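Board work, copied verbatim: Tetrapyrrole methylase family protein/MazG family protein
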Amino acid sequence: MHKLTVIGLGAAELSQLQMGVYKKLKSAQKIYVRTMDHPVINELQEEGIVFESFDAVYEKHGTFQPVYEEITARLVEVAQIEPVMYAVPGHPLVAEQTVQLLIEAEKEGKIDLKIEGGQSFLDPIFGALKIDPIDGFQLVDGTSFSIHDINMRGHLLIAQVYDAFSASEVKLSLMEKYRDDYPVTIVTAAGSSLESLTTVPLYELDQSMAINNLTTIYVPPVENDLDALRDWTTFRRIIATLRGPNGCPWDQKQTHESLKKYLLEEAHEFLAAIDAEDDFGMVEELGDVLLQVFLHAQIGEDNGYFNLEEVLASVSEKMIRRHPHVFGDVAVEDADEVIANWDAIKKQEKGETENAGSLLKGEYRATSSLQTSFNYQKKAASVGFDWPNEDGAWEKFLEEWNEFKEEVTKGDSSTRLDEFGDVLFTLVNIARFYKISPDEAMIHANEKFARRFSFVEQKVKESGQSFSSFTLNQLDAFWNEAKVLEKKEN
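↓ predict structure ↓
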């Protein structure tokens, strides 16, 4: 195994190349380079230095990762035969994926790697833009960065933007968070005699002719919350401001208890938007649900009990812990097995045993008797107290229905109430077998009734008469008309 030396060509022309790097390049018999597209290489060729590039590898692949992997594999292969010098733009350890792959190869014992110096493009970039990196900055790869990891309140530098196509991909990603006309600066050949800075609105980023192998895109920090409405930090700051000393009197006085009803209302409105297949409505209503979550987190922080980070940590840990088939080495065959694992892990987390108290503990829901019934029956079914299939549930429903009808004829109101409760309980059990949420079904039924009855009211109003002027059959005809219209709309 021979030594594989990686050396940096710097960010500009030969005149700015470090003397030590220059001497090492001059002493090499042959130098491998990722690309010939660098001003130093052109000048060194004139001095008789021989370079072998991997430019042809780029033409073989549609994405960059396999290019980097093939270059790395070739270098490792050559290093088994002879010493290798590999030169890359800038500094080897700044925005150079092939070097990172070579470091992995060294860890695996495939090569003896040495990394030499070289000026990175960051120093001349900071100088050209006249920014202080201590304020906070991010350097990301334009071919693979995720917009979800971007800090909009820091300096953002995007490297590996080679041409109009890669610039277009970067533009589309940035437009997921930044406004379309947000100013971005195209920095080319920073620190060299060819240095140029061009500031354009974001939507014009891929229309610039200055983009090439020496280009870096600079996105300045946002200066106000209106420029960062799609950033989580902005929303958190809005809620904190509303709850703060100079905020809104209504928000300031809210408590966990006072907000309970609003969380239920917003959740139901979101469910209604789902039923209506209203995407815009879902965006709005889900935002209202999110508002409730952030308000409760802010109240927790204001009271010194918990904050949003603790909420996130709790649910993140839970999701990882309860999905060992995704984040671990557990194998599952289907969704039913996933649910079984989930319940087993949940039981283990809570330290539940057969003697630790009732299985139904914690399943009561004060806001919904239907949901409580569903929870009780689901919990009982988890230990085998259940019908083998839906047939048993149907038979039990018919039995309870007949008992209720018998009590109706007897006229005993207390027993009648009890028997009707049994009927509802069996209906919830049937819903469970068919994987229907009884609470959601009831919400849907109520909404449907309100919608159709509103149509009946409208018809009565249009007639100029009162409800008492219509027979039940006439009102029922209006109801049926509403049903027909709904079917046509669907």
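The chain has 19 helices and ten strands.
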